[in-house]
Amino acid sequence: MPVTGEYEPSPAQWVRDQVEAYERSGGREANTLRDTGLPVVIVTTRGSRSGKVRKMALMRVEHGGQYALVASKGGAPEHPVWYHNLKAHPDEVAIQDGPEPFDVTVREVEGPEREAWWERAVAAFPPYAEYQEKTSRRIPLFVATRR
After folding, report:
1. pLDDT at 2 exceeding the cut of 90
2. Model pTM?
3. Which residues contact residue 24 at a Cβ distance below 8 angstroms, ignoring those fewer than 6 apart?
4. What's the whole-number mean pLDDT along residues 11-21?
5. Options 1.10.287.70, 2.30.110.10, 3.40.50.2300, 3.20.20.70; which CATH number does 13-146 get?
6. Which of these, 59, 68, 108, lies nearest to 87 by C-alpha position?
7. Which contiguous run of DSSP H or E holds residue 104?
């Protein structure tokens, strides 16, 4: 079941613009992180407090049809807001990787599974390793599986 309800765009203009362009073009535009050339996906969640639909671009880390969602927040000391959305509503998440979004269920991973996904994430976006060094928190990693 798709994530439905009132959509509240990101407070950051560049995020709003990227999400709008990606969705409007079916992923043909705005499909990389700014000027890095590295691919992104659009992730839709339900707000943990507001209940509103939220959307953001995250780095594309895909393996075997599953996706890693890395809650790095650039190595900040606290988790990104969307981390709490995933924890509160793990079954109300969608990913758009191309023309059409699809529903996923997310789960936070630990142990050897986390380590394997962390390696994939760093291979896709090397700054993740630097972000982990910058912060004392262990950066959470979720795996999204198509429903």
Report:
1. no
2. 0.96
3. none
4. 95
5. 2.30.110.10
6. 108
7. strand 101-108
